[in-house]
Amino acid sequence: MNNQAIQNLNDKIANNYHIQIRVSQSLILDSYEEGEIEEVSFIKCLDEQTIQATPEDISKRLQDCLSYIVEDLIEYGSLEKYFEECFNYSDDAIIILRSVTEGGRLPTEEEIKMWRKGDFQLFNEYSHVNIKINGVSIGQDLTKEILNMENHYGK
User: Fold this and answer.
1) What are 54-96's pLDDT values in tens digits?
2) Residues 6+ apart with CB under 8 A from 147
3) Which of 16, 42, 95, 110 has the highest local Cβ count within 10 Å?
4) Is-contact 147 67, C-beta < 8 A?
5) 3-state secondary structure (DSSP) of residue 33
6) What is the pLDDT of residues 74-84, one digit of tens each?
7) Per-residue DSSP letter, 74
8) Cα(first)–Cα(last) distance of the chain, in Å?
9) How far apart are alpha carbons 105 and 77 in whole angstroms?
10) Cβ-based neighbour number of residue 19 at 10 Å
11) pTM score
12) Is the four-CA dihedral 79, 81, 82, 84 of positive or negative sign?
């Protein structure tokens, strides 16, 4: 095998990042007494983003894309809030859990009280954010490392 060809390929890959982000989402009926009961819907591709980056701008490009997904698409809050509140559920995805009503909005305090009594339905909404860089899946830890190149998201 030609070692120079491999070296040239590695040099090219190391300077150009093709980032693919795909968001899927499942909605699971939740019961205060019984826990999660059944999946009522699954969206295989809620959103898909493809961006190009270089070593100089990968942190900023990834942050901008993830901020849009977390804040606008999933409506969880800020990216900072996600990293403060969520723990690493998966080796190859960022998973965001929200408790929502049947209409997809956050429940009121009164609705939560009714749910605890069994008089209201709430659902666990799991959003799976899968990130691939140059075809390789990365999870929360490496994502955080890349974002930490310019920012400070957790430890």
Assistant:
1) 999 999 999 999 999 999 999 998 888 888 887 666 677 889 9
2) 59, 62, 63, 66, 79, 153
3) 95
4) no
5) coil
6) 999 888 888 88
7) S
8) 42
9) 13
10) 19
11) 0.83
12) positive
